[in-house]
């Protein structure tokens, strides 16, 4: 819970106050780094562990005091969801001496930090460790617009993203998590979205683009099969 210094300051309940405190804490860390004179040569990574959720069991007035705030923005779903609001999270990398300010569309995952920083530090990863991690250091440093080519996401079922195309495999799990009132992205029918044009995943193109659906279905199955045999 936030300190009493921040209590009631956000007009969005305790959860909003906690975000204000987080913002303050990050600012204090930045101030200390500047005080030490190492701000130009220090890498700072700021991100979130998952998408937003309001009512997940805490008595923090997050729902009743939402006050028009839209934590998911244009995205569909939320925490626990296969839709983008479940896994597409803020990701900021700061290294003033090496990285120029920019916004990147590179596809990356937090698990890629391990292999990327290992490469930068010339530190070898033990064999059979971090198999899902990829080296996307050039994307982090702004040297390349490309990150990883494929990303598999997991909720109750699986989804796969490749070149802005997203496929959610059909399943029989509930479509809505009633406790949190969040769409989970589950459906008995296959789902295909073009995230470059439909970030809100409103237009299922599975019937219109059978070729892309087939490609991603086969790719996901191939990845699943390879992990099962390891």
Describe this entry's structure for a reader.
The protein is α+β, with helices and mostly antiparallel strands and 230 residues long. It has helices at 13-35, 84-87, 112-120, 137-140, 210-228; strands at 44-47, 91-94, 150-154, 158-162, 165-168, 176-177, 182-183, 191-194. A hairpin with a 3-residue loop joins strand 3 (150-154) and strand 4 (158-162). The longest helix has 23 residues, at 13-35. It is globular. The mean pLDDT is 93.
Write the layout of secondary structure elements.
Blueprint: H1 13-35, E1 44-47, H2 84-87, E2 91-94, H3 112-120, H4 137-140, E3 150-154, E4 158-162, E5 165-168, E6 176-177, E7 182-183, E8 191-194, H5 210-228
Antiparallel strand pairs: 1-2, 3-4, 4-5, 5-8, 6-7
Quick overview:
By secondary structure, the protein is an alpha+beta fold.
**Overall 3D geometry?**
globular
Mean pLDDT: 93
Largest sheet: 4 strands, antiparallel
| Spatial extent as radius of gyration | 20 Å
Brief descriptors of the model:
230 residues; alpha+beta; two-stranded antiparallel sheet; 13% strand; globular
């Amino acid at each position: 819970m936030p300190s009493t210094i921040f209590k009631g300051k956000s007009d969005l309940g305790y959860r909003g106050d906690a975000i204000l405190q987080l913002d303050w804490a990050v600012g204090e860390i930045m101030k200390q780094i500047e005080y030490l004179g190492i701000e130009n040569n220090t890498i700072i990574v700021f991100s979130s562990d998952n998408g937003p959720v309001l009512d997940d069991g805490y008595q923090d007035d997050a729902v009743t005091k939402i006050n028009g705030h839209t934590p998911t923005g244009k995205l569909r779903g939320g925490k626990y969801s296969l839709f983008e609001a479940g896994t597409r999270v803020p990701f900021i990398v700061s290294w003033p001496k090496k990285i120029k300010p920019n916004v990147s569309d590179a596809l990356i995952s937090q698990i890629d930090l391990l292999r990327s920083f290992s490469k930068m530090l010339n530190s070898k990863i033990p064999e059979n460790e971090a198999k899902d991690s990829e080296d996307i250091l050039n994307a982090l440093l702004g040297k390349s617009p490309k990150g990883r080519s494929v990303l598999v996401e997991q909720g109750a079922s699986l989804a796969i993203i490749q070149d802005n195309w997203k496929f959610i495999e059909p399943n029989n799990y509930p479509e809505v998590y009633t406790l949190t009132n969040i769409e989970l992205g589950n459906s008995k029918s296959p789902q295909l979205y073009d995230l470059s044009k439909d970030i809100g995943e409103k237009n299922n193109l599975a019937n219109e683009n059978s070729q892309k659906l087939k490609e991603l279905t086969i790719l996901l199955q191939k990845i699943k099969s390879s992990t099962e045999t390891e």
